[in-house]
Amino acid sequence: MIKIKLMILDSDEIYLERFTSVLNTKYQDKIEVHCFSNVQYANLFLVDNKVDVFLCAENINFDKKVLMPNCGFAYFCDKKSINQVDGAKAIGKYQKIELIYSQILDLFSENSSYKVSEIEAKGLASDKFVYLFMSAAGGTGSSTLAAASSMRLAKKGEKILYINLELLGDCKEFFVSEGHGNLSDLIYAIKSNNANIALKIESLIKNTKVGVDFLECCSSPLDIRDIKDKDINILIDTLLKLTSYTKIIIDADFSLQDISLSLFNVASSIILVSDGEKIANDKTIKLLETFGIIEKQNKTPLLQKVKIAYNKFSSKNAQQIVFDDVKSIGGTPRFDGAVPMQIAEQIANMAFLDNI
Amino acid sequence: MIKIKLMILDSDEIYLERFTSVLNTKYQDKIEVHCFSNVQYANLFLVDNKVDVFLCAENINFDKKVLMPNCGFAYFCDKKSINQVDGAKAIGKYQKIELIYSQILDLFSENSSYKVSEIEAKGLASDKFVYLFMSAAGGTGSSTLAAASSMRLAKKGEKILYINLELLGDCKEFFVSEGHGNLSDLIYAIKSNNANIALKIESLIKNTKVGVDFLECCSSPLDIRDIKDKDINILIDTLLKLTSYTKIIIDADFSLQDISLSLFNVASSIILVSDGEKIANDKTIKLLETFGIIEKQNKTPLLQKVKIAYNKFSSKNAQQIVFDDVKSIGGTPRFDGAVPMQIAEQIANMAFLDNI
């Protein structure tokens, strides 16, 4: 991996010393940091060195024009909550190092001229296992099972990335984390066509205490609507090349738009969730029949990837779906009186999820 | 309304007499029927008369070439289940008169050169009340509430047309009826651009004992995916002009594709259904926020049409949604141990549905 050359200009030398020490402890193999408290020395260094990201304390009078065009720039501020100073990006100095690092990555991804292939050359698409969770009926708790599966796999030591592509989804139901940005920023970066997408994704990924990394949902469903065929393929290709993850879990709405067709294609396993009641089961069967048509049209296997899981299964009315050779992996009854996160954590302990 | 000129050629004179009598009793103002048991007389009649639909017994040797190009033709057969004879359409003689009538209408709609405006000139778009049922989360029983509302309005004497545009919907969950064809046929007719859409719809409409008329769902969700912006507008315009109905109830998936945007636009009332649980409520709020953005973009009011209804509401965890001035119209708890049709019939007795 190429190291990001970071330069910081700040008159607070004590801060600079501490910051460099913490950064080197955590990200020595990813960032090479050069600190300056004096503008003249900084300008001299810039003459002979190609710098990727430049952070400048807001009280220092520095002329940004001396920077190379593909050098990322942000003001380095005392306030944590500030995002912009004089129309340029701003990063709070007194945040957790992980949050500062992700913003440095973000600046680099938007300005760097490196191509994805140079940075993530090692990742092979076929290495990655992609689980796609969907529901034909909605409201059957497919997001809960997707979150629970992520938690269970993470506990077993897998490196998990969870992505929610639902139009109206919300990762906060299941995962808490700090950090900036969400899928809307990623879609914007893909569409603007001038960012390093792999680094952009890395900068947007949030970590949780349960060991699952995730990308926050879009701010508005209108952003997902605007994803084109081409965009989703760039997104998926880049995800598959990320070397940091062994398994990707995608939670998405069922549709027959381009985005879904691309997901059907890339998924190693498609888990359809039903509550076992008549309406949800009938819709699931209609979906399986549609998969049968699509696989004939596209001449690529689809039904053999499908597994059926049950959530909110009540023994009184609920029945299992029988459809050709499609496997049921089991399920869980309805949990009452708990918030979604607690329910997902309980389901994460259930062995049937090992069959996804 | 223009009368359809129907001609029947069949050697069974007793059948012809009975058929004419039944047809005239039920459809005198819609069909003018001329019966012949002899080919020569039939051919003579065709010289001087413009015939819209021609039915010919399959054992009679008749040369179809003498018919005008826009005359609908079908064989009139003894078997009920037959659809085609020698590559031409076939209609079973011994079916209920309503089913034969709808197939005659269908033939007329596909071949007639009348434009919709000539036949349905009286209907005004603004007369019609359109209820759109949707759910942000799915699986909250929005189809059940849509069906129950249709039943309740029909009981009160309204002329109701129920249409299910869900990708994976199934009218049979709520309504039983005989008859041919479904929405897929209608979409095909709209796309082929050579049918009278109002008559095509009339020919596809099925009647139920509970007083609700409905259009059967698509055979495959792939047919709904293929609906273009233009097609859905033709469909909606024609529905609004149908004089036989006072209220139209549409059950659809939430999406942000063209089809949904057209439906948002045409709906007089949009009923969003939630089960009151956290995930469904959060998704509903995200949907309401999106409606807020769309109404600003399009400069047409949207949020003021929205009402929230609850189904499967369990008093233990469920909560009502609070969002600006959007009204809740009430709801019903979960019904256990009954099939969807029974549940819809029970809910149809509940007064809160009067607020939709």
Structure description:
Two copies of one chain form a homodimer. With 356 residues, the first copy, chain A, is α/β, with parallel strands linked by helices. Chain A has two domains: 4-113, Rossmann fold (3-Layer(aba) Sandwich), CATH 3.40.50; 125-355, Rossmann fold, CATH 3.40.50.300. In chain A, 37% of the residues lie in helices and 19% in strands. Chain A contains twelve helices and 14 strands. In chain A, the strands form two sheets. Chain A has an eight-stranded mixed beta sheet with strand order 9-10-8-11-7-12-13-14, with helices on both faces. In chain A, strands 2-1-3-4-6-5 form a six-stranded mixed beta sheet. In chain A, helix 3 runs antiparallel to helix 7 (197-204) and helix 6 (183-192) runs antiparallel to helix 7. The radius of gyration of chain A is 23 Å and the shape is elongated.
Summary, kept brief:
The first copy, chain A, is α/β, with parallel strands linked by helices. In chain A, 37% of the residues lie in helices and 19% in strands.
